[in-house]
Amino acid sequence: MPSNEMLAPHPLSSSIPDKGASMDSVEAMIHKQMAGDVPPSRDLGRFTTTKYDDTATRLFNVGNVRNQACIEEYPSIASFQSECVSILAGLWNAPSTGFMGTATTGSSEAVLLGGLTMKRQWQIKQPDVLNSRPNVIIGANAHICVNKFAGYFNVEARIVPVSESTGFAVDTEALKNMLDANTVGVFLTLGSTYTGHYDPIQRVANILDDYENRTGHDIPIHVDAASGGFVAPFTPSNETFIWDFRLPRVQSINASGHKYGMAPLAVGWMVWRDKSKIPQELLLESSYLRGSHTNFSLSFSRSGAPIVGQYYSFHRLGLAGYRERVQTMMSRANLLGTRLEDTGFFSCLADSRRLVSHKANEINTRCQEGRCVEAPELPIVVFGFSEHVLATYPKLRLSDVSNAMHDLKFSIPRSYTLAGWGAQGEDIDIMRVVLRDEMTIETLEEVLTGLTHAVEHLIR
């Protein structure tokens, strides 16, 4: 398989041709090159949406030639963005007035904006420690974009351990010992990219409340809800698992519309509880072509297509449509997990996907007859080899299974290792399948058959 060589130096091997070619010949050349790709709908490691109806596709084309930056020329795009922000603020229980939000180029930009806001707040509140290096609290389960914030903006990253013993979420006891006067904020994850688990956001908020009462230091939370922000509001557990602006400690939340928001690449959403919390110096007045507007972003010219797509999905699906799709994905994740375990070859990481609970040697009653699990987590299935397979075939590797699936034009990311995340500090080797709206029962059966046959072939 090809390796990622994007950052390696390359010799000059291509140049623009002297003369152009016909549209048909160039199109054929491009299609021929793409023929070797895994079909996007069979890329089981990605969270991003790959299937749209014909109306959505037509609207994407209309929005694609409209620049988000030109709000006077394309007031519709600005209006769609404002309405989407308002919808998300409501879903995430923001105060009815005073909030601020924006569209971003995916959640990575949103996370950088959230971190930059917290850093600048800290600098303003504590001018006497400007020579001290700020720090930010990050879980070991955080997306790489959170670490980018620390690296790009010269902030010390204090990594909170994550393990099976902490439910594959941040270790709140360890977090307590990392706080000090130079902590600008805490990043928490609503839906880990690695395992799908949610961090205990309310518990951390209580810890920070207690810390402020003892020290006077007000440390905000940013919730990276890149995946969970469009899942949690549509599940029953949202009533009891409190993670959003219902917690005063939560200052900002981001989500990716192009994941479970059913929008096209690439759109993220960022909402702050209170605009007054954003330092004025970060809100720049931008004049472009006609008119001016306040801008807080790391990019400028962008296609309006993703915003049009998000607006379309909100109104096309409504609350009932999103709820139905999320429940279906959760149920199919449960089905895939239990069926994988039923083969005897695999064991699922999350209790909610298992036939027998890790926590007690008893049958898991959370999922019966395909009903939705109440556990707060993403609709993904994370699994490795069963203890029997590991003991009987110690040389067998999950990467071999991944390669076999790739031959079937399915991409399940090569096994990755959760280093030291085991209950006794051991490494855990896993694979991950993301359940998206477009995964049908037929595709699920094909995946199960492929995985089963792959192991049967490898152990012969």
TrEMBL record:
<dbReference type="GO" id="GO:0006538">
    <property type="term" value="P:L-glutamate catabolic process"/>
</dbReference>
<dbReference type="GO" id="GO:0030170">
    <property type="term" value="F:pyridoxal phosphate binding"/>
</dbReference>
<dbReference type="InterPro" id="IPR015424">
    <property type="entry name" value="PyrdxlP-dep_Trfase"/>
</dbReference>
<feature type="region of interest" description="Disordered">
    <location>
        <begin position="1"/>
        <end position="20"/>
    </location>
</feature>
<comment type="similarity">
    <text>Belongs to the group II decarboxylase family.</text>
</comment>
<dbReference type="GO" id="GO:0005829">
    <property type="term" value="C:cytosol"/>
</dbReference>
<dbReference type="InterPro" id="IPR015421">
    <property type="entry name" value="PyrdxlP-dep_Trfase_major"/>
</dbReference>
<dbReference type="InterPro" id="IPR002129">
    <property type="entry name" value="PyrdxlP-dep_de-COase"/>
</dbReference>
<dbReference type="GO" id="GO:0004351">
    <property type="term" value="F:glutamate decarboxylase activity"/>
</dbReference>
<keyword id="KW-0210">Decarboxylase</keyword>
<keyword id="KW-0663">Pyridoxal phosphate</keyword>
<dbReference type="Pfam" id="PF00282">
    <property type="entry name" value="Pyridoxal_deC"/>
</dbReference>
<keyword id="KW-0456">Lyase</keyword>
<dbReference type="InterPro" id="IPR010107">
    <property type="entry name" value="Glutamate_decarboxylase"/>
</dbReference>
<feature type="modified residue" description="N6-(pyridoxal phosphate)lysine">
    <location>
        <position position="259"/>
    </location>
</feature>
<protein>
    <recommendedName>
        <fullName>Glutamate decarboxylase</fullName>
        <ecNumber>4.1.1.15</ecNumber>
    </recommendedName>
</protein>
